[in-house]
Amino acid sequence: MPILEVKELRKTFQTVVAVDSISFSVEAGEIFTIIGPNGAGKTTTLEMIEGLQTPDSGEIKIKEMNWKRNAEQIKQIIGVQPQTSALFDLLTVYESLDVFAGLYKRSRPVEEVLEFINLTEHRNKRVKVLSGGQKQRLAIGIALVNDPDILFFDEPTTGLDPQARRNIWDIVRNLKGLGKTTILTTHYMEEAEKLSDRVCIVDQGKIIALDTPQNLIYLLSQEREIHLSFPTTLKDVEKFVDIVMQYPGVTNVKTELNTLYFSTTNTEQSLYELFKYTTENQIEVKQIGIKDVSLEDVFISYTGKEWRD
Ligand SMILES: Nc1ncnc2c1ncn2[C@@H]1O[C@H](COP(=O)(O)OP(=O)(O)OP(=O)(O)O)[C@@H](O)[C@H]1O
Predict the structure, then answer these.
(1) Is the CB of 38 within 6 Å of ligand 1?
(2) Ligand 1 pocket check: which of 43, 155, 208 to mutate, most ligand atoms within 8 Å of Cβ?
């Protein structure tokens, strides 16, 4: 049974349709990422699930409960990361966690949360002197104080440098290790690809694709772009191009200086044939490159437009 089910969720603001009939379900223990460009409807979707906004229509079930009937029980089992701007500058890290822990019936010891978000050594620092990454980790800590089953993080890594971003990824992965479910939003394709079990791509309030990152990429295309460089200019270039064209699945063969480029839907067989040929003809290969399809290519393929990060 899914831990979260969302059916036909819809929300409009005056003339803007922010969320347009969105449905999905999330299994316990998943890292589920909602990704989309600015204004796609990610925050509105998340806030409706968190009970912070009321949908115009649609259904939200969290562990078979709903906000109308079971608001108090739901609040005990979810954790929502606040915006870092909502933290109190003058409180220390420890005090910030302690204040929030006091709001719940069941809470985790603050020391444990500090350890989990790797802020133990900064426990007595005031919020205002923390770095951006430390503030985000503290905000995640606040979401953890009631030891929730489901966590909601809205763009937890926006604006952070690569190392600070990776520290947040580690926390999310550790939460998965504890069996927690995390639903997060992001602008970063790489983050969705590396971190998530499943990715829901939204654009203009609608889901345009939902699957594991691997499947999304695989379904789009099995085609790869391959290039091979040689130490010297190839002899009989035209003959070579003709031979490569005959390999199964190969299209778009071209050469430029000492490099051969082609696309193939059968990477393994094409490379096997190619290396057989270069070996038999004693052609030395200097470098080989294979370009993978990324989630960004998936977005462009579904929407026909560039990803606006
Ligand atoms: N309170 C509001 N009043 C009016 N329009 C709103 C309100 N909240 C959101 N919108 C509009 O709804 C649409 C979806 O906004 P939302 O914040 O959910 O998108 P988002 O994907 O989270 O974007 P971002 O990545 O920029 O945070 C946008 O067009 C936005 O301008």
Answers:
(1) yes
(2) 43
Q: Does the fold of domain 222-292 match that of domain 4-219? A: no
Nearest residue to 95 via CA among 117, 130, 127 = 127
Average pLDDT, the chain: 91
Fold (CATH) for 4-219: Rossmann fold (3.40.50)
At 7-44, the pLDDT tens digits run 999 999 999 999 999 999 999 999 999 998 889 999 99
Looking up tokens 């489901």 gives 150
CA of 15 to the centre of ligand 1 (A): 12
- Domain extents for the chain? 4-219, 222-292
Regarding the beta carbon of 34 and ligand 1, being less than 6 Å apart is answered: no
Q: Is the pLDDT of residue 206 over 80?
A: yes
Determine which residue's CA is closest to atom 4 belonging to ligand 1: 13
Task: Give me the count of residues in the chain.
Answer: 309
Task: State if residue 40 touches ligand 1 by the CB under 6 angstroms criterion.
Answer: yes
Q: How far apart are CA 46 and CA 48, in angstroms?
A: 5
Q: In CATH, what is the architecture of 222-292?
A: 2-Layer Sandwich (3.30)
ipTM above 0.95, yes or no: yes
Distance 223 CA to ligand 1 centre (A): 36
- 260-271: per-residue pLDDT in tens? 999 888 888 899
Q: What are the φ and ψ backbone dihedral angles of 31, each rounded to 5 degrees?
A: -105, 110
Name which of 276, 271, 220, 275 is nearest 249 in CA terms: 271
Contact between 231 and 258 (Cβ < 8 Å): yes
User: Which pLDDT tens digit goes with each residue over 155-174?
Assistant: 999 989 999 999 999 999 99
